């Protein structure tokens, strides 16, 4: 533990602004006193960390030419902010943000901004046992604070691109986003992770904190489109105030290791959360989603749907926990996780969990694992559709129900094209059923 | 529902909580190799079994107590437990029922098990295990005619050593887990059942367990072997007296269902759950597992109403093609009881099928968790699992949890899991009350309906008992 990432941590400690220093030190103390999880750690039972390199260089703060890097960034009609290796890239970002939205980089914050950031930073994600959050805290040289003013209604989506650029040796990116949705505000946020070159050996350790004040509405979409050698350990932690609504969608294409923890805290009465996701590992990729819905107060609702298609020798892990605290009466919570295995070497480990300490609640969860339904395939074939095409159609249909929950139309259209291409181009994902 | 009703229910006494004044021969508390040698010598065991025990003990010494279950209890000092207790009058070994201590017989009658052959109601052959030794086994003659062996395992060690040696530890290895290893080292007695090829056991077999002596642990071991194409239904029931300190029960049950055999194993567990303040009660840490070979079927049915802490996962290893595993469970916790129970279905063979139906009811300040594992191995082509876990919450201080692990490595295997949690609905209660039922009756009826799927799997007379047991445990816990 002591040597791993030391270089990055030391360089972060020297470049971080003075007002963050104590925060870094606290994170570093927690990181150094912990040890890496093993397969015996319940939270990491199905995800090994063998893919982690013994050391990572800090990410360079370099400019990048998107075309050279083979990156094409879509436009969703809103405002785009691009971060290369965790550093803000003004040349690719829109200069003008809508009224009511301010974006502050931790490194550039003035005194009052710093005080404001400091009062929110880490309050959502907490100082719990999460090891990689400690690492993120310890390496926090820079971060992004997105501040949405109370009452602001932002029609167009805010598109935040996290791009991992080129670098010769294995490098690490420390990504940190803090979003404050003021009272009764409304906005959409797209977090878009993508890599410049697919063979990059990058390790992204990300933390996103979403703070929704009373009556706020946030649509949060997180696309994890890095592939191949990109290693990603991420955490999204949201706290919902009274009557706040979070509509969240996650998509992960596989890579050597992707682990995402999503925690949603209902801490004000009447809060509602919709959490949906899709994971599509193939090859020898690994995707792990751990979600936890915390119901701390009465009269909240949550609904969660995650679906996965696992091909080749890929593995997927899903752990969906619903935790209803004592006195969180009148809670309604449901969760569904469905998986398709399309190869004899594919593997899925799923565990929907309920932990309930209040009686007047309605909770349900379900999980299934199977392959494409033979009857449906047969039906399509009797209608003259070739088997391979029928498989693509059914696989896409399986995912499409979740895509439908995405409220941003431009994003929905982008995802449909992306996934159709992926299915059609990749018969391995759907083709080995027969 | 009034506070009066609640108080009434809370003050209800544990009906099986009497202590029998039977003089017994109890080993002083503590555990070391000498204790194991003593137990083995007392039972006149062959050397291989003593070695087997010692090996288990040495393995156990290197193990640590499992902490993953969702239960909380003060650390158990295993050196304060006595590992052997037998009623004194048993020392010479009763040759027939007439020689059995009349007070023992009276006690069983009090519990409502008709031990005497002439008093048998429905042809249930009983092997009664009292503290650590087997007291009497009824209906031996009739069973022997069919070729069925049903006797205490301590006796089987002498009469059928080849069978015991071949199968003991074959399903639950000595070092399987902390409590199974402890049991392997110090097990005192238990039942042994052997059903020969093609035989349908002519009657239900039954074991009755009771912990009587204070500060003793009970470590029984049951081994059931069903040869090809045979069929057996086995029942066990458990009680213990009311005592302030916690007592340990760590049993091991092994089932072997060879090709085409069927074993049905039913449990009504009513160990003393502790008083309304959570004081006393049995720690029930049990390892139960069966191996099903080709076309075989193993069915576990359990009604768990007792014990302060339960830690129990009757499992099926579906090794042979087309084998079937079933698990039907009702677990009820009240006051400060804690249960972490469920099953494991390990699908190894082709076209194996498993069904899990689990009904958890928590009342008072209790905690009730379902923990299960369904594993589809790469070779389990065409395997199928269906799991349904429902929890019912009664009262706002109780807790219900579900932890199902699903691991699939075969695309043609189908796994379905569903779980729901709710309370007794006000609408249902209202409807019943409107029809003239009082609230208690209505709740009891609704809960019985909630458990119906499991009760119908129990043999008739046990289903009636289970229904009553539930009613007794539940009455008044609805506010």
Describe how the helices and strands are arranged.
The complex is a heterodimer of chains A (434) and B (479).
Chain A: H1 6-15, H2 21-33, E1 57-58, E2 79-84, E3 87-88, E4 101-105, H3 111-120, H4 131-138, E5 144-148, E6 158-164, E7 171-181, E8 186-195, E9 202-212, E10 217-224, E11 231-240, E12 245-253, E13 257-266, E14 272-280, E15 286-295, E16 301-310, E17 315-324, E18 332-341, E19 347-356, E20 362-370, H5 374-382, H6 387-403, H7 409-425, H8 427-431
Chain B: H1 3-10, E1 24-26, H2 33-42, H3 47-61, E2 85-87, H4 102-111, E3 125-130, E4 133-137, H5 140-146, E5 149-152, H6 153-159, H7 161-167, H8 178-186, E6 191-195, E7 205-210, E8 221-226, E9 231-239, E10 246-249, E11 252-257, E12 262-269, E13 281-292, E14 297-304, E15 309-312, E16 315-318, E17 324-333, E18 338-341, E19 344-347, E20 353-363, E21 367-376, E22 384-394, E23 399-408, E24 414-423, H9 426-434, H10 439-450, H11 452-455, H12 460-474
Parallel strand pairs in B: 3-7, 6-8, 7-9, 8-11, 9-12, 10-13, 11-13, 12-14, 13-15, 13-16, 14-17, 15-18, 16-19, 17-20, 18-21, 19-21, 20-22, 21-23, 22-24
Antiparallel strand pairs in B: 1-2, 3-4, 5-6
Description:
- The complex is a heterodimer of chains A (434) and B (479).
- Chain A is an alpha/beta fold.
- Chain A has 2 domains: 6-268, no CATH class; 382-434, no CATH class.
- Chain A has 8 helices and 20 strands.
- In chain A, the strands form 2 sheets. In chain A, strands 1, 4, 5, 7, 9, 11, 13, 15, 17 and 19 form a 10-stranded mixed β-sheet that branches. A 10-stranded mixed β-sheet of chain A has the order 3-2-6-8-10-12-14-16-18-20, covered by helices on one side.
- In chain A, strand 2 (79-84) and strand 3 form a beta hairpin.
- The longest helix of chain A is centred in the last third of the chain and has 17 residues, at 387-403.
- Residues 429-434 of chain A have low confidence and may be disordered.
- Chain B has helices at residues 3-10, 33-42, 47-61, 102-111, 140-146, 153-159, 161-167, 178-186, 426-434, 439-450, 452-455, 460-474; strands at residues 24-26, 85-87, 125-130, 133-137, 149-152, 191-195, 205-210, 221-226, 231-239, 246-249, 252-257, 262-269, 281-292, 297-304, 309-312, 315-318, 324-333, 338-341, 344-347, 353-363, 367-376, 384-394, 399-408, 414-423.
- In chain B, the strands form 3 sheets. Chain B has a 10-stranded mixed β-sheet. In chain B, strands 13-15-18-21-19-16 form a 6-stranded parallel beta barrel. Chain B has a two-stranded antiparallel ribbon with strand order 1-2.
- In chain B, strand 3 and strand 4 (133-137) form a beta hairpin.
- In chain B, helix 3 (47-61) packs antiparallel against helix 8 (178-186) and helix 10 (439-450) packs across helix 12.
- The radius of gyration of chain B is 22 Å and the shape is globular.
- The A-B interface holds A 42, 326-327, 329, 339-371, 433 and B 68, 376, 378, 391, 393-423.
- Strand 19 (347-356) of chain A pairs antiparallel with strand 23 (399-408) of chain B, so a sheet runs across the interface.
């Amino acid at each position: 533990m002591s040597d791993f990432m030391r270089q990055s941590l030391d360089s972060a400690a020297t470049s971080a602004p003075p007002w963050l220093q104590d925060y870094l030190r606290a994170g570093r103390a927690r990181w150094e006193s912990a040890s890496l999880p093993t397969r015996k750690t319940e939270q990491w039972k199905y995800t090994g960390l063998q893919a982690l390199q013994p050391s990572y260089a800090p990410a360079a703060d370099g400019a990048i030419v998107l075309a050279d890097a083979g990156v094409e960034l879509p436009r969703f009609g809103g405002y785009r902010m691009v971060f290369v290796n965790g550093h803000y890239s003004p040349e690719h970002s829109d200069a003008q943000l809508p009224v009511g939205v301010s974006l502050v980089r931790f490194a550039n914050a003035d005194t009052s901004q710093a005080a404001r950031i400091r009062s929110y930073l880490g309050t959502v994600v907490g100082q719990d046992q999460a090891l990689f959050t400690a690492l993120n805290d310890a390496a926090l040289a820079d971060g992004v604070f997105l501040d949405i003013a109370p009452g602001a209604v932002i029609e167009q989506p805010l598109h935040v691109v996290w791009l991992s650029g080129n670098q010769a040796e294995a490098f690490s990116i420390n990504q940190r986003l803090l979003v404050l949705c003021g009272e009764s505000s409304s906005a959409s946020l797209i977090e878009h992770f993508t890599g410049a070159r697919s063979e990059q050996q990058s390790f992204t350790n990300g933390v996103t904190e979403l703070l929704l004040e009373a009556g706020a509405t946030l649509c949060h979409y997180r696309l994890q489109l890095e592939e191949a050698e990109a290693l990603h350990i991420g955490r999204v932690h949201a706290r919902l105030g009274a009557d706040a609504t979070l509509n969240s969608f996650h998509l992960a294409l596989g890579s050597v290791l992707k682990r995402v923890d999503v925690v949603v805290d209902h801490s004000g009465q009447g809060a509602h959360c919709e959490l949906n996701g899709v994971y599509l590992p193939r090859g020898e990729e690994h995707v792990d989603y751990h979600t936890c819905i915390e119901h701390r107060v009465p009269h909240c609702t949550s609904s969660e749907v995650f679906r996965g298609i696992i091909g080749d020798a890929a593995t997927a892990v899903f752990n969906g926990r619903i935790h209803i605290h004592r006195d969180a009466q009148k809670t309604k919570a449901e969760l569904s996780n469905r998986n398709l295995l399309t190869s004899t070497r594919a593997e899925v480990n799923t565990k929907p969990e309920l932990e309930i300490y209040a009686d007047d609640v309605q909770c349900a969860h379900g999980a299934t694992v199977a392959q494409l339904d033979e009857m449906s395939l047969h039906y399509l074939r009797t209608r003259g559709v070739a088997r391979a095409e029928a498989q693509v159609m059914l696989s896409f249909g399986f995912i499409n129900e979740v895509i439908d929950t995405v409220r941003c139309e431009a994003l929905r259209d982008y995802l449909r094209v992306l996934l159709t291409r992926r299915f059609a181009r990749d018969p391995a994902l759907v083709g080995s059923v027969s | 529902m009034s506070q009066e009703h609640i108080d009434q229910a809370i003050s209800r006494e544990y009906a099986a909580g009497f202590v029998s004044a039977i003089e017994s021969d109890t080993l002083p508390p503590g555990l070391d190799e000498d204790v194991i040698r003593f137990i083995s010598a007392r039972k006149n065991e062959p050397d291989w079994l003593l070695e087997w025990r010692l090996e288990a003990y040495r393995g156990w010494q290197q193990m640590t107590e499992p902490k993953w279950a969702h239960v909380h209890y003060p650390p158990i000092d295993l050196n304060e437990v006595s590992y052997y207790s037998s009623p004194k009058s048993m020392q010479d070994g009763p040759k027939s029922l007439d020689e059995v201590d009349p007070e023992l017989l009276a006690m069983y009658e009090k519990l409502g098990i008709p031990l005497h052959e002439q008093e048998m109601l429905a042809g249930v052959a009983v092997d009664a295990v009292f503290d650590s030794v087997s007291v009497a086994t009824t209906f031996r003659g009739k069973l022997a005619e069919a070729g069925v062996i049903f006797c205490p395992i301590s006796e089987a060690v002498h009469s059928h050593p080849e069978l015991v040696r071949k199968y003991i530890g074959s399903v639950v290895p000595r070092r399987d887990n902390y409590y199974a290893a402890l049991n392997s080292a110090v097990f005192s007695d238990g039942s042994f059942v052997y059903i020969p090829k093609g035989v349908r056991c002519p009657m239900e077999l039954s074991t009755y367990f009771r912990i009587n002596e204070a500060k003793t642990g009970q470590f029984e071991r049951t081994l059931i072997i069903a040869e090809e194409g045979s069929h057996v239904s086995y029942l066990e029931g458990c009680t213990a007296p009311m005592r302030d300190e916690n007592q340990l029960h760590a049993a091991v049950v092994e089932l072997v269902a060879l090709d085409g055999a069927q074993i049905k194993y039913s449990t009504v567990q009513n160990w003393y759950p502790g008083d309304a303040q959570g004081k006393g009660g049995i720690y029930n840490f049990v390892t139960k597992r069966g191996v099903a070979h080709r076309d075989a079927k193993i069915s576990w049915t359990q009604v768990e109403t007792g014990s302060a802490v339960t830690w129990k996962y009757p499992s099926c290893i579906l090794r042979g093609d087309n084998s079937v595993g079933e698990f039907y469970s009702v677990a009820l916790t009240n006051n400060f009881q804690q249960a972490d129970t469920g099953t494991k279905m390990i699908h190894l063979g082709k076209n194996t099928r498993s069904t899990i139906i689990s009904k958890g009811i928590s009342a008072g300040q209790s905690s009730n968790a379902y923990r299960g594992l369904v594993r589809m191995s790469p070779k389990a082509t065409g395997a199928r699992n269906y799991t349904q876990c429902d929890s019912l919450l009664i009262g706002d201080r109780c807790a219900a949890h579900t932890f199902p692990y699903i691991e699939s490595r075969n695309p043609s295997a189908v796994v379905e899991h569903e779980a729901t949690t709710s309370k007794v609905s006000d609408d249902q209660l209202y409807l019943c009350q409107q029809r003239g039922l009082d609230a208690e009756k209505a709740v009891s009826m609704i809960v019985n309906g909630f458990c119906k799927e499991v009760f119908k799997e129990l043999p008739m007379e046990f289903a009636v008992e289970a229904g009553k047991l539930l009613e007794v445990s539940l009455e008044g816990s609805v506010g």
